[in-house]
Design goal:
The chain is an alpha+beta fold. It has 17 helices and 20 strands. Bound molecules: adenosine-5'-diphosphate (2 copies) and magnesium ion (MG).
Length: about 500
């Protein structure tokens, strides 16, 4: 058993602060790293110590393993938490950290390696009685072979990059005529994006839900599951609204999925926090997609319904403690929703809409949690993921969580650029969402940018009132422009 004294968080933004909060609670000192673009970021001030690691591009800063190791040595850091994204699923990084006598707060190098590649994951899991999406679990390069597989599983099929992630590296093929062309493209894309051209073919589930299971394991072989998160509301195969529990799982199905997830975890001797993702079809049959060997963006909804601080557990597990609870001790209490606040324009294909955060007021009240990493008056850097905050609303049941979320979204004031907030309000109020009958095609099926105007009529009226003020504001800005190139933006008070 090793008592951690000082943690370096190899990340930025909300997740860096999230991790440091728990470390501080546990009496552990914290070290932040930051790029030139983040020198004024709250995560830098929150830490006990902070070190600049280089210019804005992440390849020259947040991804610099050698610099991070050197800082660990210089500042007597005894453990590194990678957050999500960046180096969190980089087996080479975890290996180097541990070779230098520093604990990696995450799973073993082997587990990261095996699960980091979708094909090796499928292969490893094969012996553990886990249902798989129909298809193959080896790389396919020959279009003729792909055609045979597609015929067996039936069109449409999905060509997937084995090394893919973040919703990238997937192509849907509707019919045999498109197959060869799409395969060529998939392979060259996989090569250029992930440096690995291996692709495989699986059945494309046409009305799927994405439901994932949170697992925790210790270094003594104990494993538990902390129920599911429903993550079906996505754009570009990326999640934007998550909730726990799912509105559609029965206790029996929950148990079956939980146990399948434990099988996946067992197959790679998993310890720390991890997530097993499943795709679920209309009949509630579920299939293994992949395992994410890290803390997930949407982990707060699980914390809210179980009362478990996942970061605290990760730290204790890294120290060598056995889990302090058993499966029977875990119960679902209430319901929790998360919306991801991205600096993106939902009226323009969710393209990033980065800028100056001229107003920033967070919502408050019972059941409201905001995990964020920016504050009013900051520029949002263009170099990184455009997620600026996560808004989490928890209630005694789903209806109360929805009510609280809608109120909180309306209270949240962000001006300076567009965000996904008004889209999330639209989605959460939609009958398909409130009834629980939705799938990953929600955005394609129900969403049109024009509908955002109707979400919040009072905001729309306000827009008319404010239009007059904008004219005045603009002339003021012109006066100020000599000293200040940043424009304040009234119009964005109405968020569309
Ligand atoms: P989650 O499963 O928690 O929703 P993702 O799997 O989409 O999250 O990835 C978490 C973070 O890491 C996101 O910020 C995403 O942009 C980034 N990310 C993950 N994999 C990749 C990848 N292969 N290329 C680029 N970014 C990635
Ligand atoms: P990533 O590593 O990018 O997260 P995943 O395999 O987890 O890749 O897939 C991301 C998303 O793509 C899923 O949440 C789901 O919406 C969609 N998807 C993946 N596989 C399938 C499939 N076989 N059929 C239909 N949709 C799929
Ligand atoms: Mg995934």
């Amino acid at each position: 058993m090793r008592k951690i004294q000082k943690i370096l968080v190899a990340n930025r933004g909300e997740i860096a602060i999230r991790v440091m909060r728990t470390a501080r609670e546990m009496g552990i000192k914290t070290v932040a790293i930051y790029s030139d673009a983040d020198s004024h970021s709250p995560h830098v001030r929150y830490a006990d110590e902070a070190v600049n690691v280089g210019p804005p591009p992440s390849a020259q800063s947040y991804l610099m393993t050698d610099k991070i190791i050197q800082i660990c040595k210089d500042l007597s850091v005894d453990a590194v938490h990678p957050g999500y994204g960046f180096l969190s699923e980089n087996a080479g990084f975890a290996k180097t950290i541990e070779e230098n006598g520093v604990l990696f707060i995450g799973p073993s190098v082997k587990a990261i390696e095996v699960m980091g590649d979708k094909l090796s994951a499928k292969e490893t899991v094969a012996a553990y009685d886990v249902p798989m999406v129909p298809g193959v679990n080896h790389a396919v390069t020959d279009p003729e072979e792909a055609r045979k597989i597609a015929e067996q599983v039936g069109y449409p099929v999905l060509i997937k990059a084995s090394a893919g992630g973040g919703g990238k590296g997937m192509r849907v093929v509707e019919n045999p005529e498109e197959l060869e062309e799409q395969m060529k493209r998939a392979i060259s894309e996989a090569l250029s994006s992930f440096g690995n051209g291996a692709v495989f073919v699986e059945k494309f589930i046409t009305s799927p839900r994405h439901i994932e299971i949170q697992v925790l394991g210790d270094k003594h072989g104990n494993l538990v599951y902390l129920f599911e998160r429903e993550c079906s509301i996505q754009r570009r195969h990326q999640k934007v609204i998550e909730e726990a529990p799912s509105a559609i799982l029965t206790p029996e199905k929950r148990k079956a999925m939980g146990e399948a997830a434990l099988g996946v975890a067992r197959s790679c001797d998993y310890y720390s926090a991890g997530t097993v993702e499943f795709i679920v079809d209309e009949n509630l049959d579920f299939f293994f997609l992949e395992m994410n060997t890290r803390l997930q963006v949407e982990h707060p909804v699980t914390e809210e319904i179980t009362g478990v601080d996942l970061v605290r557990e990760q730290i204790r597990i890294a120290e060598g403690h056995p889990l302090s609870f058993k499966q029977e001790d875990l119960k679902i209490k209430g319901h929790s929703l998360e919306v991801r606040v991205y600096a993106e324009d939902p009226t323009n294909n969710f393209l990033p809409d980065i800028g100056y955060l001229s107003t920033y007021k967070r919502p408050e009240g019972p059941g409201i949690r905001v995990d964020d990493g920016f504050e009013e008056g900051m520029d949002i850097p263009i170099y990184y993921d455009p997620m600026i905050a996560k808004l989490i609303a928890t209630g005694k049941d789903r209806a109360e969580a929805i009510e609280r979320m809608v109120k909180a979204i309306q209270e949240y004031e962000i001006t300076g650029f567009k965000t996904t907030l008004n889209f999330c309000e639209f989605a959460i109020k939609h009958e398909a969402f409130t009834s629980g009958k939705f799938d990953t095609k929600f955005v394609d099926t129900y969403y049109k940018p024009e509908l955002l105007q109707e979400v919040n009529p009072e905001h729309h009226d306000l827009a008319v009132v404010l239009a007059a003020l904008v004219v005045e504001e603009k002339s003021n800005n012109n006066l100020k422009a000599k000293n200040n190139t940043k424009t304040s933006n009234w119009k964005l008070r109405v968020r569309d």
